[in-house]
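Researcher: Structure for this, please.
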Amino acid sequence: MSTSANRKKEDVGLPVGSLLPSQKVKAYTGELYQLDILDKPQIMVFISMYCSFCIDLLPHLSQIQQKHRDYQLMLFSTGDDDDHRDMIDYFKWDFPVFHMDQSEMENWFDITQMPFILVTHRNKVICKGVAYDVVGASQLILNV
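Model: Predicted structure, token format:
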């Protein structure tokens, strides 16, 4: 069994209070984002296209965004450009969607379980956890 499989859920993701990595990421639309200098508090959602729980969360992302308007929702997905275009068109998303390999999710954000949410403010992690739906995501966000 791998080390990441033996980790407790609380040990997944950047520690609360830690700074976001100083990385530039390019959204599906081509827009560049510098992760450690984002203006607004963030709800960063991490999914794998091979995770059924992650796919089940996708229809709820717009509702999460609507419910928490003070935050910028960002989706980090292992999907390719075609996956992202199809999801954005189908769900009518207006938040940024980024391609990120699972190895990058683990190396940059210490995320080994999905779907995973990091909530950030002033470029620091303020809460984190696995969330499967709007209720789970809202519980994370409201506990800030």
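Researcher: Any notable elements?
Model: The radius of gyration is 14 Å. Residues 57 and 132 are 6 Å apart (CA to CA).
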